[in-house]
């Protein structure tokens, strides 16, 4: 493990050195010092970027949650929610690459400190572009991530403090959820944008086997995914798989999309007639969504709207709680999960919506900052729940330069908790979490 960390750190160091060399050599000549042009017309280039999200938060913990050796009701912590360092570009007329290093969820629960969370390779793809209608590529990527817009989200432009992680299929795929070893094709046909992918998913390491469905630990079959989006207004870029959460009124976007994700025999449950031969079932997910982002007046105010519906079939009574990142000791035996967890994924139907309003520009030219208020909700009507799980969010973003990039965010999340009453799970409580974020992004 130590040797692996050392190699990753050397790779990260080399990457940063190359980036800094490129930046320093171009800074005097280019208006964008983070882009190195490889041709005079700029059609061949390498672009560098980074994103850091720092959280300070207060969390009402789920019952029986432990911080250290003690069961506590609440806790406060600091978190590096995301760290990203990336390079991408066209190195010939037809060949595109994207390379990204990073890490998630560095907080005090890591016993050895940040050193046990080295930079990891998040994205590494090569892509050949025949024309705008068809790009073919492969590697470690999110092009096969799932069924709806935020199956692959641009973290630097999120409207809310975090993405709706249930859309990222994190219960089936790799350590990083929506990034897998895939081959894919994508392109733009008139007002349509499409993506299709075949993924070789990672094997799930451990899983209990009982009457309710869980994830099989058998060698996984291939995953198949696809999305089709129709644009009524401006077309969005398909340069990278990560979709923006808001454009701050700089574009007129109105999209509707449909997607699917399937994997044969991905799930299992115990067989009452033959204990040595578990029942294997397929995983099937369907998604429908709508995204709307438009300026409202010459004053610069803008509206952002997102709505999604997912039908998820993981097998009988499957559920999973998500805690991001968990401020307590991970305990998978708890129904809601430990810490700030809530039942976010399972067999059934999930509804999600976001609403954001960007306030008008300041009265003077000195007022560069922009304020944006938002609200969001997730409703999970799952097979095993007596009543749907509901999660609500309220918050605001302040963009320091008036553009996507550095920002301050304040948010509050309230989640429903459930108990096992012997049959279906029944809601018995609600808990909250308050977060302050500082994002540095370029």
- Indicate the percent of residues in helices: under 10%
Tally the helices: 1
Q: How many β strands by DSSP?
A: 22
Terminal CA distance = 32 Å
**Gyration radius, in Å:** 22 Å
- Structural class designation: mainly beta
Explain this structure to me?
By secondary structure, the chain is mostly beta strands. Helix content is 6%, strand content 50%. The chain has one helix and 22 strands. The chain has one helix at residues 2-26; strands spanning 35-37, 45-60, 66-67, 70-71, 74-90, 95-106, 120-131, 134-141, 180-189, 192-200, 214-215, 223-231, 253-269, 279-295, 302-313, 319-322, 342-346, 348-358, 370-382, 389-399, 407-420, 425-441. The strands form three sheets. A 16-stranded antiparallel β-barrel has the order 2-5-6-7-8-9-10-12-13-14-15-18-19-20-21-22. Strands 3-4 form a two-stranded antiparallel ribbon. The chain has a two-stranded antiparallel sheet with strand order 16-17. A hairpin with a 2-residue loop joins strand 3 (66-67) and strand 4 (70-71). The two termini are 32 Å apart.
